[in-house]
């Protein structure tokens, strides 16, 4: 099974570039930027990366991202992730980035986008890995702040395919971002959002009805509502599921109880993703193999999951034919 998974061509549709920041690279970048981080060793980091919930993780994730300063830092972060894609036969990836995590600290939008997109261009040429970018709004900030980010993105519109919504879900429903999503769609961005990770099925409804999303990030709690399940199937929307993220953040208590197989059996279109691999204990292939073992998935299931990852990507229909 391990070799089968390694050899499967895959796409990754749910990945936060700031969440791919491995401790070794974090130490290196902190050192060259003369920034102190509160860890002295990889052991101390491992101890800190034990989370009770999403907020617990986010506090540490934003702290880690605070080391990123120059265009080269964003380039190195992104290229390092893309090398891991190449090594795992991840042929295409749709990378989320959180501009506000950086612009709030005085780093320009331009620095962030140029570093990330140059790495993507180089990876296409040197590693044969294609990518596109999803600019994510931080939902714990105001809609007005998101509008500022949308404005800042416009000179770089040709480099960005979609907009997303991430960070603290509870208390920050999709409805809060209704207007900025409308404006983002008008600018040509495809809308996606995290919904139903910690939030209820109502948040998924809002993301569909009020934000018009084309894909659901996580979506686990959709299973609480039969009507919602039917609606997601009717609209042919995929869920970007992240098994190791779900156990790390205690959205699911044990992989054996993960609803992924149930989702497939219900007819939902599911993909497997790593979310924040540096923090949650595994890249894409480990997500595939751990969930395979836990749920006894067959090769046919795995093939379907990998096929979905291309089918529900934002590649144009013609390009998809190069992968599936
Ligand atoms: C995230 Cl797992 C998760 N959920 C919500 N927002 C996020 N940002 C980075 N990882
Ligand atoms: Zn996520």
Please, could you describe this protein's structure?
It catalyses: adenine + H2O + H(+) = hypoxanthine + NH4(+). With 324 residues, the protein is α/β, with parallel strands linked by helices. The chain has one domain: TIM Barrel (Alpha-Beta Barrel), CATH 3.20.20.140. 49% of the residues lie in helices and 15% in strands. An 8-stranded parallel β-sheet has the order 1-2-3-4-5-6-7-8. Strand 3, helix 8 and strand 4 form a beta-alpha-beta unit. The longest helix is centred in the middle third of the chain and has 19 residues. Bound molecules: 6-chloro-9H-purine (ES4) and zinc ion.
Structural class: alpha/beta
Task: Give the CATH topology.
Answer: TIM Barrel
Distance between the termini: 20 Å
Give Rg in angstroms: 18 Å
Tally the structural domains.
1
Top-tier CATH class: Alpha Beta
Mean pLDDT: 98
